[in-house]
């Protein structure tokens, strides 16, 4: 009987739907359960598909329930959060939890997105001509796609060395990654999100939110990289100092 129970526990522990992380304890408000994870994934998938459908329908001249710009924003937002969890589950399973969706990402994040949608809807209703510059949205689409690829590539390449939470204690298996995409960007996941987020506001042609996003994100990454790199210097010493001198962040005014 004991061996049977042990076998059941082992099978449960190896279940790919299990979201109890080995390293990071979930800290958000969303329950860390397979049901919660599958529900979120389903809802993000539905949101992404509806956004893509509306975006495509608008471009082809068919009736859609969302204008093309807002549809692209919604689908990009849904894909980003789904990809955060999917990449973590695929290449960094020991740190995978419900928090990996980054949906419980602080009030400021949700307020910023809400303000961006409100700005878009209000301006489009009162001054629709201000949303008719296709080249601005096209640059934004390019920035969103490039930023998403850059961030996902960074997470995949760093694998178990990547963490959504800044580590201040070095793990035995923690290695300094300086090759691949990290040979071009010192913090490629940060740069990816920075340009992804600004790209969404170019797609929406939101000048006020673009400036707000730029200021808030620059401030966040400026101070986050400082605290993170102080820890990395303790972990890796001169190796990280040399790497920091050699490779920039590629985020404006974040050395």
From TrEMBL:
GO biological process annotation, one example: methylation
Record localization: Endoplasmic reticulum membrane; Membrane
E.C. numbers: 2.1.1.100
Transmembrane segments: 35-53, 65-83, 107-127, 139-158, 193-218
Membrane protein topology class: Multi-pass membrane protein
Reactions catalysed according to its record: [protein]-C-terminal S-[(2E,6E)-farnesyl]-L-cysteine + S-adenosyl-L-methionine = [protein]-C-terminal S-[(2E,6E)-farnesyl]-L-cysteine methyl ester + S-adenosyl-L-homocysteine
Key words, A-Z: Endoplasmic reticulum, Membrane, Methyltransferase, S-adenosyl-L-methionine, Transferase, Transmembrane, Transmembrane helix
Molecular functions per Gene Ontology: protein C-terminal S-isoprenylcysteine carboxyl O-methyltransferase activity
Transcription regulation listed as a keyword: no
Main location: endoplasmic reticulum
Cross-referenced Pfam families: ICMT (PF04140)
Gene Ontology CC: endoplasmic reticulum membrane
Biased composition (Polar residues): 13-22
InterPro entries associated with the record: ICMT_MeTrfase, PPMT_MeTrfase
Annotated PROSITE patterns: SAM_ICMT
Span list, region Disordered: 1-23
Tree of life domain: Eukaryota
Record flagged with keyword Protease: no
Entry similarity comment: Belongs to the class VI-like SAM-binding methyltransferase superfamily. Isoprenylcysteine carboxyl methyltransferase family.
Name by which UniProt lists this protein: Protein-S-isoprenylcysteine O-methyltransferase
Species whose genome carries this gene: Panaeolus cyanescens
């Amino acid at each position: 009987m004991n061996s049977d129970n042990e076998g059941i526990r082992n099978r449960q522990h190896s279940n790919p739907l299990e979201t109890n992380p080995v390293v990071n304890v979930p800290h958000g408000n969303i329950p860390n359960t397979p049901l919660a994870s599958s529900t979120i994934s389903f809802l993000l998938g539905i949101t992404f598909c509806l956004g893509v459908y509306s975006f495509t329908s608008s471009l082809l001249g068919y009736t859609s329930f969302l204008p093309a710009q807002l549809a692209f924003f919604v689908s990009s937002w849904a894909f980003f959060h789904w990809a955060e969890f999917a990449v973590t589950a695929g290449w960094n399973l020991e740190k995978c939890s419900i928090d990996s969706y980054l949906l419980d990402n602080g009030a400021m994040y949700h307020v910023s997105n809400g303000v961006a949608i409100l700005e878009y809807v209000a301006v489009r209703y009162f001054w629709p001509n201000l949303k008719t510059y296709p080249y601005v949205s096209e640059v934004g689409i390019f920035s969103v796609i490039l930023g998403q690829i850059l961030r996902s590539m960074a997470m995949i390449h760093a694998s178990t060395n990547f963490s959504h939470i800044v580590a201040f204690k070095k793990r035995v298996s923690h290695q300094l990654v300086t090759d691949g995409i990290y040979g071009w960007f010192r913090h490629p996941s940060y740069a990816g999100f920075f340009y992804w987020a600004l790209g969404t506001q170019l797609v929406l042609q939101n000048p006020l939110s673009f400036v707000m996003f730029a200021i808030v994100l620059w401030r966040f990454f400026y101070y986050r990289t400082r605290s993170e790199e102080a820890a990395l210097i303790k972990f890796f010493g001169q190796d990280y100092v040399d790497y920091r001198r050699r490779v920039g962040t590629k985020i404006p005014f974040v050395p």
